[in-house]
Amino acid sequence: MGSRIKVVIGGVNGRFGRASAAAVLGDGDLELVGAFGREGAPYVGQDVGELVSGKQAAILVSSGFQDILARVKPDVYLDFSLAEPAFRHGKMALEHGVRPVIATSGLGDKEVNELTDLAAQKKIGGLIAPNLSVGAVLMMEFAKQAAAMFNHVEIVEMHHTKKHDAPSGTAMHTVRKLASTGKTFNAGQVEEQELIPGARGGQGAAGVRVHSVRLPGLISHQEVIFGADGELLTLRHDGYNASCYMKGTLLAVKAVPGLDRLVVGLEHILNLNLQLVG
Fold first, then answer.
1. What pTM did the predictor assign?
2. What residues act catalytically?
3. What is the dotted CATH code of the domain comprising 5-128+242-277?
4. pLDDT digits (tens, 9 = 90+) for 137-152
């Protein structure tokens, strides 16, 4: 067996960052060599193992990515922060020859294109994953398949009240999946009048409407609803805790060293994995 993949985690202070740190520490193919969170956070200097599981791991939370890069050369940078620092640290990773796995929503096309171009210049791969849940990725892939049979579709995404972006990255990725079929959906049948602006949701590419719900008690949920005369087809994914994202996270971290370009969407990793085992 070859040497373990060296991993740095950004956003280790968050729910998903802590869960991913525990997952990396528990995987024999991976080696956690650094972690950091918000600048000036009180847990800087704390043992990562104690932060995530109560057991020492001999890896201390650093003050920032630059501090880690000065001490060690990681193979993969895993980001569970917010859009702005994820973009900044993703660029920093690529510039240092480190392959990023950015599991943060809210990145715009401009930022994605800049990271893609930089990865091409550096001749290394990486992943931007709007969602690292295998179930959520399958839901989006099934929606793309169903789109061939339906002309009307709307998306309802539901998240907790602390989510910054709307629509979610998963919803935006789903819209792109549906639009990639080349169809235009939801042809108007009447002159609609919104009594409250936005009541019909936001309209994305190819006419797909998206509705964002933010309520206490929600975690991460999405429905893709297709309609036709006499029937509805609803594809739904529910994420109840951080653990449902860890299978995809570990797959991504292990797969990106074999990529020669930056890709968007975990489905690229799943396809690669199926080819490797099949």
1. 0.84
2. 159, 163
3. 3.40.50.720
4. 999 999 999 999 999 9
